[in-house]
Amino acid sequence: MQLEQEQISIFFGVPSYKINWEKNSYSGNLKIITDNEFNDRFVFCGANNPKAVYREVKAITKFHQDSQLYIAPIGTKPQAIGCIPLLCDSVLRFPVGVLWDHPKRKLGRTSGVSKILITKKLFD
């Protein structure tokens, strides 16, 4: 798949859940970011704030109504959750794709329970 720079927004979780986890997300994707010159395509949102991701994604879509947009939520599950309403809504209005940083689950990567996110109303 060949994408234009303008079609990609990389959502990066800062601050991270735990100290220095943001380095793992960045270093794990560094080759792709530098090889494709995506250094200026970052959108920064809290790693555990899906509502902030949703607001940013919604704002970005205003500039991509006539073209395919790809979103890459690098890092946390709450960031990926923040993209879901737009993906559901975009089916009817404009094309949006998602690129995942770790599409294949690594054995032993996650265990136990950390922070739990509770919210009354996540999306408008």
Mean pLDDT: 76
Question: Any idea what the shape is?
Answer: globular
| Biggest β-sheet: strands ordered side by side in the sheet | 2-1-3-4
Annotation, overall tally of beta strands:
4
| Share of β-strand residues | 15-25%
Run of helices and strands: EHEHEHE
What distance lies between the first and last C-alpha atoms, to the nearest angstrom?
33 Å
Number of domains: 1
CATH topology: Rossmann fold
Please tell me the CATH architecture by its name: 3-Layer(aba) Sandwich
Give the radius of gyration: 15 Å
Please work out how many helical segments DSSP would assign: 3
Low-pLDDT residue spans: none
- Percent helix, as a range, is 25-40%
Biggest sheet, open or closed, and with what strands and sense?
4 strands, parallel
Structural class by secondary-structure content? alpha/beta
CATH C-level class is Alpha Beta
Q: What features would you describe in this structure?
A:
The chain has 124 residues and is an alpha/beta fold. The chain has one domain (5-98): 3-Layer(aba) Sandwich (Rossmann fold), CATH 3.40.50. It has helices spanning 21-35, 50-61, 77-93; strands spanning 8-13, 42-45, 69-74, 96-98. It has a four-stranded parallel beta sheet with strand order 2-1-3-4. It is globular and about 40 Å long.
